[in-house]
Amino acid sequence: MKVGEQQQQQVAGTGNGVQRCAVVVVIDPGHGDSHDESTTIDPGAVGGGLNESDIVLDISKLLKGKLAAKTDLIESVHLTREGNVDNPSQPKLLWRQQVAVAKKCDVFLSIHMNSFEKASANGKEVFYNHKSSNKAESAKFASALYTEYKLPIAWRQPPIKTSGLSVLATYKWKSTKLGIYRDSTIFQSVKAAALFELGFISNDADRKAVIDNKDNIAGWLCEGICSYVSANRAALCGP
Description:
By secondary structure, the protein is an alpha/beta fold. The protein has a single domain, classed as Zn-dependent exopeptidases (Aminopeptidase). It is built from 7 helices and 10 strands. A 6-stranded mixed beta sheet has the order 4-1-5-10-6-7, sandwiched between helices. A two-stranded antiparallel sheet has the order 2-3. It has a two-stranded antiparallel sheet with strand order 8-9.
């Protein structure tokens, strides 16, 4: 092999369909785990006889399959859970972050459905944590997800929102007898993180739209992730 050809291959990829600076994605299906010091599985929100935890797990599995096929951009894709998680070794939310860190995650997406006591509440929305050190990239990621997500229900306004959601934080919470403190040694390696509320499970129209479009939703989220990765390779892969 000529030196010039070898250099080109190092820049373009490994020759096996996975580029040299492909990224690792971790998908987090919300809920479906036991509460701290409890064996009761958290179903998340409930509506129409359905559990949020089951719906988002179905969609997350579909999304994993679609992302796994994007070998030009994605090195690997992982779920924080493949089913219900009994008695996680770490407190709620923290164990999800630890999965991401263990997998050397670059891009993290937590998937949920909303709920409200008034059935008229509806809409889809995406969050990123404006208190985290990865807030700039996470804002870009949230915007890419918003652009590609075409479920035919209204967007809540504003559609992209900031929140100090703990599952997206670049620090961990640890309970002690003295209270709670932050340890910034975990989750900081994640370069972009967002949480997507697919719609309201408590709203009949939203719930039906999500149930009827599980594969489409996975496809839209896949395109959002790939769009973000493609446009931000320098930030994701480094020098």
